[in-house]
Specification:
- The chain has three helices and eight strands, in the order βββββββαβαα.
- The chain has one domain.
- Helix content is 16%, strand content 32%.
- By secondary structure, it is of the alpha+beta class.
- The longest helix has 9 residues.
- The two termini are 30 Å apart.
Length: 140
């Protein structure tokens, strides 16, 4: 499978309930689809929409954006950041002409440093780096 760029809703879950920092952004997938590169992080797929940062082990919720604009969990709250480069695509997707007041435009993140993550994988003490990451000890 080739690497893809996708529009996604991403929310930090570690240390928060349903009100963690959240973004609507373009993410890049790894060729295998097991990693998502997002704002300088590599997020490994754990289960369903749950992913975790391969360096910090923080958990994130990653999902497609909702056409009705209700990306946050119904019990959650707070502003959601949207990357400047994702605004037009997001507005087209939801069929709107302007952003909702709960969205805050932020600068696009720089392209991911894939060499950093490849080096991390190559310095792992195990051959199967992703298998090692599939069961973090602090999984909620």
């Amino acid at each position: 499978m080739a690497s893809r760029t996708l529009l996604r809703y991403v929310e930090l879950k570690t240390g928060y309930s349903d009100d963690g920092p959240a973004w609507i952004a373009r993410v890049r997938t790894s060729k295998s689809g097991k990693l998502i590169y997002f704002r300088g992080k590599a997020l490994a797929h754990a289960e369903r929409g749950r992913h975790f940062d391969v360096e910090t082990r923080e958990f994130y919720w990653v999902s497609g954006v909702k056409k009705n604009g209700a990306d946050r969990h119904w019990a959650g709250g707070g502003k959601v950041s949207i990357e400047r480069g994702a605004v037009d695509e997001y507005l087209r997707l939801i069929g709107a002409s302007q952003l909702d007041h709960t969205l805050v435009i932020v600068d696009d993140a720089p392209a991911p440093d894939l060499n950093r993550f490849h080096a991390l994988a190559n310095h792992s003490s195990r051959n199967d780096w992703l298998a090692e990451l599939e069961t973090p000890e602090d999984a909620p």
